[in-house]
Design brief:
Layout: H1 20-29, H2 37-46, H3 51-55, H4 60-72, E1 80-86, E2 92-98, E3 104-112, E4 115-119, E5 123-125, H5 134-138, E6 140-143, H6 146-160, E7 166-171, H7 181-192, E8 204-208, H8 212-220, E9 226-230, H9 236-242, H10 245-248, H11 251-265, E10 269-275, H12 283-292, E11 298-304, H13 318-330, E12 335-337
Parallel strand pairs: 4-7, 7-8, 8-9, 9-10, 10-11, 11-12
Antiparallel strand pairs: 1-2, 2-3, 3-4, 5-6
Helix pairs in contact: 6-7, 8-11, 12-13
């Protein structure tokens, strides 16, 4: 019996919420051999047919089990496309997706030379309140379930079709992934399963504003995904003004957690720095950042501010960004000035805000 079939279950669930081990266990509980799990798993994640069409090809025990799931409710996670917008260069597409309860989230598909990346949401809204982020400005609504995260990747893959291969996944959409830790990590286990979507862990990045308990948990559980930490300032007062979570987890705690992450996983951390003209783009602050990250396996992504209606700051100019980067380079810190994508359709970093509700 699936979780959504149990009378005591308080939370909706679909097949997309189940890991492969969960699916095997669900079959066994209903008297179906777990040997059938692989066929069903491949059908769920590698076929574009409906479950109704697929069940006709299954062996009788599995076909009967699938029919029962369909009779009891939605076996698949269904995200309704409420709106799609594309950037002027057609390389970025933003999808407004309606969830089963009418809440909406935004997912972004980005095209690069020879590859495509998808940026998915992990919450409807966000509780972190970063002042320059449109999602933070809208507040927190609820966590997404694993299946709702997985379904965004499936939607992006369908939208891409034969136009290319979905190679990278970034959890940088609406929400704070480490605030929804269990659902996010379960979704990533499903997404990276080699028998299904097969998106390798080395192609997956989790972005956080610096939720220290989540960073430590990732490190101690030896999770195989990349980690990006939104920093934006190198002293507590300046950072807390931009990222309220900095009041709960000051830089001393955050840097200690980051060093433990690097020591336990052997991986570098990507630090995100939104460049805001006249606020955090001075050469002095670049030097302060270099000192803060001294000796760490780190890469700094410099991101010129993307405009939002709730924040009056302006993006740093190209010259300021290059000079900031030069100071980091002199300090021995590799860095990249991030290419701005999808700004004309509010699909850039910090611009996602699902404003439309179900009709």
């Amino acid at each position: 019996m699936l979780p959504h079939q149990a009378q005591a279950a308080a939370v909706r669930s679909t097949l997309h919420d189940l890991t492969y081990a969960d699916l095997q266990a669900a079959l066994v509980r209903d008297g179906v051999s777990c040997a059938h799990a692989r066929a069903l798993w491949r059908a769920i994640y590698r076929s574009e047919q409906s479950l109704y069409e697929l069940q006709k090809t299954f062996a009788p025990p599995l076909a009967g089990w699938v029919r029962r799931q369909m009779a009891d409710g939605d076996a698949f996670e269904r995200l309704q496309l409420a709106e799609e917008t594309a950037s002027s260069d057609r390389l970025t597409r933003k999808f407004l997706l309606r969830l089963h309860d009418g809440q909406t989230v935004e997912t972004v598909l980005m095209g690069y030379a020879g590859r495509h990346s998808v940026c998915v949401s992990t919450q409807a809204g966000c509780a972190m309140g970063c002042v320059f982020c449109a999602t933070g400005q809208m507040g927190f609504v609820r966590h997404l379930r694993p299946g709702e995260i997985v379904a965004q990747v499936l939607h992006a893959r369908r939208a891409l079709g034969d136009a290319g291969h979905l190679r990278n996944l970034v959890l940088m959409g609406m929400g704070e992934p480490l605030h929804n830790y269990d659902s996010v990590l379960k979704a990533l286990e499903i997404i990276s399963d080699t028998g299904g979507l097969n998106l390798g862990p080395s192609r997956i990045t989790i972005s956080t504003v610096g939720v220290v308990p989540g960073i430590l948990r990732l490190a101690r559980e030896r999770r195989p995904y990349h980690l990006a930490v939104s920093l934006h300032a190198a002293d507590d007062a300046a950072r807390s003004a931009l990222v309220p979570a900095g009041r709960q987890w000051p830089l001393s705690e955050l840097m200690s957690a980051c060093r433990e992450y690097i020591a336990l996983t052997g991986r570098k951390i990507f630090f995100e720095w939104t460049l805001i003209a006249g606020q955090n783009d001075s050469l002095e602050q670049a030097a302060q950042l270099g000192e803060l990250l001294r000796g760490m396996r780190a890469h700094v992504n410099l991101i010129p501010l993307n405009p939002t209606s709730g924040f009056g700051g302006q993006a740093s100019g190209t010259e300021a960004a290059v000079e900031f980067q030069g100071v980091l380079r002199a300090a021995g810190l590799p860095s990249t000035v991030r290419q701005r994508r999808g700004i004309d359709v509010a699909a850039g970093c910090g611009q996602l805000r699902a404003q439309r509700l179900a009709l």
